[in-house]
Amino acid sequence: MLTKILSCAVVGIDGEAINIEADVSKGHPVFIVVGLADKAVDESRQRIPTAIRNSGFEYPYSKKIIVNLAPADLKKEGAAFDLPIAVGILISSGQVQANLDNSIFIGELALDGTLRPTRGILPVAIWAREKEYKRIFVPAINAKEAAIVTGVDVIPIDSLQEIALHLNNQKIIKPFKITEELKDEQIIDEVDMAYISGQEHAKRALEVAAAGAHNVSLSGPPGSGKTLLSRSMVSILPKMALEEQLEVTKIYSIAGCLSQNMPLVINRPFRSPHHTSSGVALVGGGTFPKPGEISLAHRGVLFLDEFAEFPRYVLENLRQPLEDGVVTVSRAQGTFTFPARFILVASQNPCPCGYVGDPDRECVCTQVQIMKYKNKISGPIIDRIDLHVEVPRLAFEKLNQKEKAESSASIRDRVNQARSKQSARLKEYGIFTNNEMTAQIVKDVCRLNSETQQLIKQAVNSLHLSARSFHRILKVSRTIADLEDSDEITSPHVAEALQYRPKTE
Ligand SMILES: [Zn+2]
Q1: What is the C-alpha radius of gyration for the chain, rounded to an integer number of angstroms?
Q2: How far does residue 398's CA lie from ligand 1's centre (Å)?
């Protein structure tokens, strides 16, 4: 007898239908899985018979069992098809009677017949809703993740035995519903700016960056608090809308980074990969392409500490996401595109030893070393960073200040206000933030009065600013004006923006 059952594979970050046919018939005893199955699917040929037996069913060893996964040209990963294959065999061998209409099955089986946590459940649930399927059978441990998507019944399954009883109408499992509110406090490593003493200049730069979604570079000696400052940036960014949360959660689901405690990514991500991480871990890829750190930072902050130490090809790979908000990964089975729109916070020491220009410690680097260090980051990347900030090491008294600084929530109010001003102004161009403005848009929307024009003209001449640099300053000035709720860009705005230009210019 032939049973048809529906499952779903994740390609890039989206679901795609997998039709599974399980046929059990008389003939030479064999268990064949066809349809370009990878090693893990092949291993399921070992796992499924044992799981079926250990669940109290009979595995039809004397029968010819053929399982077909279609479409054949789609490379299928992993063990997520265990559950539909096993259910198909149980039905085809007459041990379960069920109506499979409108149902999607996904999940990996353990040898004892229980279900194991499975990656990529959220995109499958989103896909099921889009295609208007009624229910999706998932491992119980992933149910919360799937139930974030409303409009499709999520049936949590603990074991093969349980799903058989359910399908046979002997013991019905109720759809899983999220009862408690998903809380804001899920990510606890958010740092409030109120707890960072001093560093007002750097904090102000981060506020401007957050307001205009500008990329920032922080330069300063070890121990100046660059990491803490970067971490606090997430707390002053606007809260994510539900659509954004779902989009980010989808990426985390595929990367296998969700847990029962964190089924939905509510706060903006902060990712800080180390410079020794592999290219695949950073950019994404692998045999079955998974999103990398730059995609896990989507809609949040990507913090690259010791920026100059990152391999050159990694930095080159940042160009596309910084330009387009996506990263394309090429693999044998095709190209995959993952979202990667983040604010880059690049931090570096001013020289290899970290102490050039420091009043208290002597730098031990040679001029050549310092030059080489500074030149490691290519021009096109520097061009995508609008704010360059120096973060000095603070004297102890300053760090130990008693009075609390302004809270992140109050800074975020200004950021929100500046963002809504921008999105209203930029709507006609199809963009949301000042960072996304092209040279042409800058020309259209950053008009200056004659006094301001005079100031910027002077700056261009005396500082020998390039055209690129000029645009960058206009963009940042626009954001500073937005933070002040000013329609006009005035001289103080430009004067502040000039402070954030790279020191190499
Ligand atoms: Zn040095």
Answers
A1: 28
A2: 24
Angle in degrees, 0-180, between the axes of helices 200-212 and 408-426, rounded to the nearest 10: 30
pLDDT, tens only, 103-150: 999 999 999 999 999 988 999 999 999 999 999 999 999 998 898 888
CA distances from 262 to 86, 148, 180, 265 (A): 29, 11, 13, 7
Query: What pLDDT is attached to residue 504?
Result: 63
Tokens of 448: 């200056």
266 closest CA partner among 232, 243, 282? 243
CA of 203 to the centre of ligand 1 (A): 25
Q: Residue 187 pLDDT > 80, yes or no?
A: no
More confident residue, 299 or 400: 299
CA neighbours closer than 13 Å in the CB half-sphere of residue 251: 26
Burial degree of 105 (CB within 10 A; 0-12, 13-18, 19+): buried
Rounded to the nearest whole angstrom, what is the distance from the C-alpha of residue 357 to the centroid of ligand 1?
A: 9
Mean pLDDT for 161-167 is 96
Taking the centre of ligand 1 as the mean of its atom positions, its distance from the CA of residue 365, in whole angstroms, is: 4
Mean of the per-residue pLDDT values of the chain: 88
| Helical segments of 332-392, H only | 367-375, 379-383
